[in-house]
Design brief:
This protein is mainly alpha-helical. The chain contains four helices and four strands, in the order ααααββββ. It is globular and about 50 Å long.
Length: about 110
């Protein structure tokens, strides 16, 4: 069974690398694949209530050299490619969006 799990993880990584990341990197001309991967990993690990600026600060704390604009672009690329979903808070009684921090959720691929 260990080999089975190993091959399953290998298969899933190959899907992520070949299909998802290759398409995004090709379509958006991303220059730093490692930086994009690290950004997605960091988004998956942080609290959902973190703002873009807080995420940027966390990346800087990890000695990752990324501009705020590049970070926003990477998030937009991921949202446009349906890797992550941007969710806004919504008040049902007032029937409108609330101006709070946006939450990001990874989608099933």
């Amino acid at each position: 069974m260990i080999n089975n799990n190993y091959y399953k993880n290998l298969f899933l990584d190959s899907i992520k690398n070949k299909v998802v990341l290759y398409d995004i990197i090709t379509n958006y001309s991303i220059k730093s694949i490692n930086l994009y991967n690290y950004t997605l990993t960091k988004i998956s690990l942080i609290n959902n209530n973190s703002s873009i600026r807080e995420l940027h600060r966390l990346l800087k704390d990890d000695n990752v050299d990324i501009s705020l604009i590049t970070l926003m672009d990477y998030i937009d690329y991921s949202v446009n490619s349906k890797i992550i979903k941007r969710c806004f808070s919504y008040d049902l009684k007032l029937d409108k969006s609330i101006n709070t921090k946006v939450k990001y959720y990874f989608t099933d691929i």
